[in-house]
Write a structure and sequence with these properties.
The protein is α+β, with helices and mostly antiparallel strands. The protein is about 20% helix and about 30% strand.
Length: about 200
């Protein structure tokens, strides 16, 4: 799916992911530190099947894959995804480690929530590894609450993460979500990525 209008924050623009973003995306997700809690494989485990999934992200019929870029210079700083299903929108997000602790994860999630609410979404979920305390804190700042326990696996490895889905019901959420700047990055999961929230 492609965005009609790009959501913006004071510093970021979220736009539809393009194949030309592949190198940045793979370096981000495949980095051992940046992708620690992601289901995506580290660079050396990115096999042909995984790379084919990445190639199919542009205008994917299941959801929105987005690139976050700085408005000032169009420099890519992260990625996010939004998967709508029956009024719920499952999200993922990731900020490049060079930009951690600048509040960009907060801006990204705020933009996603505003966009989902404008689309008439009823709720938003994000899957977060239990060890990923910064991402849990980020979602809680926006009013997300623990919803259900889950477990996921890193592609191509026997690495498993105990996790939880966190959920925000938009009917009860404030019209304008304002939170303090947090030292956080992002989230994601498995189409190649579809849920496991990641933040540092």
């Amino acid at each position: 799916m492609l965005l009609i209008k790009n959501p913006e924050t004071p510093r970021l623009r979220l736009r539809s992911w393009r194949k030309s973003d592949k190198d940045f995306t793979l370096s981000l997700w495949g980095d051992r530190e940046n992708g620690k809690y992601m289901s995506d494989p580290v660079r050396e485990n990115m096999d042909e099947a995984y790379l084919k999934c990445v190639d199919e992200m542009e205008d994917n019929p299941e959801g929105y894959y987005l690139l976050a870029e700085r408005k000032a210079d169009a420099m890519p700083v992260g990625t996010c995804c939004i998967f709508p299903e029956n009024g719920n929108y499952d999200i993922g997000y990731c900020i490049a480690k060079e930009y951690w602790r600048e509040g960009l994860g907060t801006e990204m999630v705020d933009a996603i929530l505003r966009w989902v609410k404008a689309k008439g979404g009823k709720s938003v979920t994000g899957e977060v590894a239990d060890g990923n305390l910064p991402s849990i804190a980020l979602l809680r700042k926006f009013g997300f609450a623990e919803d259900r326990k889950t477990r996921y696996k890193k592609w191509g490895e026997e690495t498993y993460f105990d996790a939880h889905y966190y959920k925000l019901n938009l009917d009860s959420a404030a019209d304008s979500v304002t939170v303090p700047t947090l030292p956080l990055s992002g989230t994601k999961a498995s189409f190649p990525w579809r849920g496991n929230a990641f933040a540092e």
